[in-house]
Amino acid sequence: MAGAALHLLVDAPLEVGAAVKAECNDTLMLGEVCHCRPDAGHYAVGVKLEHALLHTTELARLAARLLEGMPPDAAPAQRRDASELNPPAKP
């Protein structure tokens, strides 16, 4: 993400160098505050973006399926109950 930046208008000042997490629509962005200036009763903040994660809703669904032991492409109706995932030990 070379050169990617985010410009925010916030109510309270942020310290230069502070880590920032911003979420917008279906994207999670992580960055560092590079400047913070007063602006008409608010603060204009520039954030140098380090990472962006797209399609977070779909990733959350995939993670839930993986944690349930389902193949990633399985339909929700194919979910198995917990007894199938961890059958009781045989004596």
Keywords for this structure?
91 residues; alpha+beta; 4 strands; 18% helix
Question: Helices, strands, pairings?
Answer:
Blueprint: E1 5-10, E2 19-24, E3 27-39, E4 42-54, H1 56-67, H2 82-85
Antiparallel strand pairs: 1-4, 2-3, 3-4
List low-confidence stretches. Answer: 79-83
Number of domains: 1
Gyration radius, to the nearest Å? Answer: 21 Å
Kindly state the percentage of residues in helix: 10-25%
List the total number of helices: 2
Please tell me what the overall shape is: elongated
Largest sheet descriptor: 4 strands, antiparallel
SSE topology string: EEEEHH
On the 0-100 scale, what is the average pLDDT?
A: 81
Strand content: 35-45%
SSE class:
alpha+beta
Q: What is the terminal-to-terminal distance?
A: 56 Å
DSSP strand tally: 4
Order the strands across the largest sheet as they lie in space: 1-4-3-2
Describe the structure.
The protein is α+β, with helices and mostly antiparallel strands and 91 residues long. It has one domain. 18% of the residues lie in helices and 42% in strands. The protein is built from 2 helices and 4 strands; from the N terminus they run E-E-E-E-H-H. A 4-stranded antiparallel beta sheet has the order 1-4-3-2, with no helix packed on it. A hairpin with a 2-residue loop joins strand 2 (19-24) and strand 3 (27-39). The model is unreliable at 79-83 (pLDDT under 50).
